[in-house]
Design brief:
about 200 residues; alpha/beta; Rossmann fold; two-stranded antiparallel sheet; globular; binds zinc ion
């Protein structure tokens, strides 16, 4: 039996990742129907199983389902706090919360970036999910900035509903020209770049 190594390549092994040693940001992005909220809920559930204190926030603008839950398209849901402004998260966060989930981040105002940075800087794990492109195929500025600032970026793809290729765009089927248009299956389809129409 060899003795447990305490020195690796001349360095001490890194301390295990722990919220008390410094937080970080994770972001899950993709088009509609790419499973972003499901992935967010999955990560939050694992943290809860490990008895970490979790709080979840969503924008009061996101009125697709109940205000006190985030819900994926397959109707898996988890309790959340709906806030009108990004900065409201800082007044609603409990001091002992270790993991912060934020769903549909594109609905928030630009302050959400500073809010996420502050929460991670306080040593919390921040997990964000949201659309990376609007219905015109243009990047959402807040999502793009959060992707640049996050330690971990996951890009989910849906399946194009016309041709079956990997899809990273959300085709609006009806409705107005507002960039943030709340809706789900009745208004949007996942499309690949070839089938997407501006
Ligand atoms: Zn296609």
């Amino acid at each position: 039996m060899s003795k447990r190594k305490t020195v690796v390549n001349g360095h001490r092994p890194a301390a295990p990742m722990s919220w008390s040693h410094g937080g970080w940001m994770e972001i899950v992005v993709g088009s509609m129907f790419s499973g972003k909220t499901q992935e967010l809920i999955r990560r939050l559930r694992l943290a809860q199983i490990a008895r970490q204190k979790v709080q979840v926030f969503n924008s009061a603008l996101d009125v697709r389902y109940a205000k006190d839950h985030i819900v994926s398209h397959d109707l898996v849901k988890t309790p959340s706090i709906a806030v009108a402004k990004a900065k409201d998260i800082l007044t609603r966060i409990d001091s002992d919360t270790q993991v912060v989930g934020i769903d549909e981040v594109q609905f928030f105002d630009a302050d959400i970036i500073a809010v996420c940075e502050k929460l991670a800087g306080e040593g919390r794990r921040v997990i964000v999910a949201g659309l990376d492109q609007d219905f015109r195929g243009e990047p959402f500025e807040t999502t793009a900035r959060l992707m640049a600032l996050s330690e971990f970026v996951t890009k989910n793809l849906a399946i194009c509903m016309l041709c079956g290729n990997p899809a990273n765009r959300s085709q609006r089927l009806s409705g107005g020209r507002k960039v943030v248009e709340v809706g789900a299956a009745d208004k949007y389809e996942a499309r690949c770049r070839r089938c997407f129409k501006r």
